[in-house]
Amino acid sequence: MTYDLSEVAREQRMGGIGSETDTREIRVIDLTDFETRRAEITDQLWTAATEIGFFQLSGHGIPQAQIDDVFARTAAFFALPEPVKAQYPLVKANNAGWESLSQVRPSIGVPDQKESYQITRPHMAELWPTDTELPGFASAILDFEHRCWTVAMRVLSCFADRLGFSRDHFTAAHDPASPEYQSTLRLLHYFAVPEELRDVPGRWRAGAHTDFDCLTLLFQRDGQGGLQVCPGKEMEDQRWTSITPSSALITCNIGDMLTRWSDDLLPSNFHRVRSPGPEEYQGDRYSIAYFAQADRDAVIAGPRGAYPPVTAADFLTQRVQANYRPQR
Questions:
Q1: C-alpha angle 281-101-326 in degrees, rounded to nearest 5
Q2: Largest alpha-carbon pair distance within the chain?
């Protein structure tokens, strides 16, 4: 896989509706008794990751009550008046803060129909809502972010084993205590579909894209669907599979950074969020994504040397320049 401006053209080709198939299995992998079952879990993760690039996790250890609480806090944040949220604007260089309708993907050429709030640990000074606005928000969100990090590092340790790296190879490259840490927790709010647009075909809440990180953990809510995946080998035919949302499962996908780090053994595949159909839930959709992306100074070098080493900071700069353009 190459990472250059040709990626824009590739993403634009994904802007069509394409066909939908329900025959592809999105595997659910149980992480219960992780250390005892490590070899079995590693085999299951590797198969799911190499064949589809998407899988779901059960037995992940994050209490359901905590997940529900963070979703409630997410809805409370986005319910704040816009002038309040605007006090905590997105700082693009640090991927921290609030934005709305600002991300335009080449696949559709219009802004994603959402707002988001990014939490990147070293860069949150002056970007947290006050305790008067949202009591206990920062501490609750940071505790949840750390739990997400723990799950992501378990999964990545399995990939490290299979790739021939030391078991803590990826953990060392994602250090929450480092000022170079750039993993991000992203709170997402997709806007309800306006009544007058509910029968308009070809609308998207988020256009087709790949993620830039190593591994994404996505938390969804029962009944709030729309996420679809298209494995790369089926990209030309655009055969999309919908992923049923579950409040109890974490949906995971491989990102571009891990594809590079694995010398293309682990594929990063296109996904999108379609607008709901006439008979589906049309209201606000909330989700929470944790993007495990290596510290800025971490060096990405695959086990077979297929690509020259590159720092994570330089890699992400290349990906953003190739795939993202802000609204003008």
A1: 140
A2: 55
